[in-house]
User: Fold this.
Amino acid sequence: MKICVYPGSFDPVSNGHLNIIERIAQSFDEVYVLISLNPNKKYTFTDEERLYMMKKVTSHLKNVHCELSEKLMINYAKEKNAKIIIRGLRNISDYDDEMTRFQFNRTINENIDTFFLFPTMNNLFLSSSAIKELIIFDADVSEYLPKKILEFAVKIIKERK
Ligand code: ADP
Assistant:
């Protein structure tokens, strides 16, 4: 059984994230999307809202499971029997962060590896923070956010700006 974990803030989930999830759902038997709970991080959406949006946009993928967890990601992966962590790699600054994160995770559990996926061309410059900024300036973000959550996410971002 091939099991992986795809962790992130998903504040909110974008088409870039969804594209990665759809691709890994084809290669793994089970995919656990871990929505991180980091008390030191300030999110726009509540934990429950981030989970709600992720569940909604992945409802067509039967082998994708979405969960909130406070556990250290590598321990969460072990608990799920996952040998692989998935990360997206957009640019050099992602690369620097991911290199450090990869080494850190290896020191905790060397049996769990990380696979990196490049975004497709149309998702290359997409980040949750850029989408939020565009919404605050009333730009059209329908190309960047999954249709199923577009209205919900735009409304909340405008309310909380
Ligand atoms: P963000 O950087 O947008 O706040 P997250 O912290 O939620 O994203 O990221 C979770 C994972 O998704 C990370 O591995 C990140 O590199 C990846 N990711 C983020 N945006 C994209 C994108 N547009 N295309 C592919 N992967 C992405």
Summary: The chain has a mean pLDDT of 97. The radius of gyration is 15 Å.
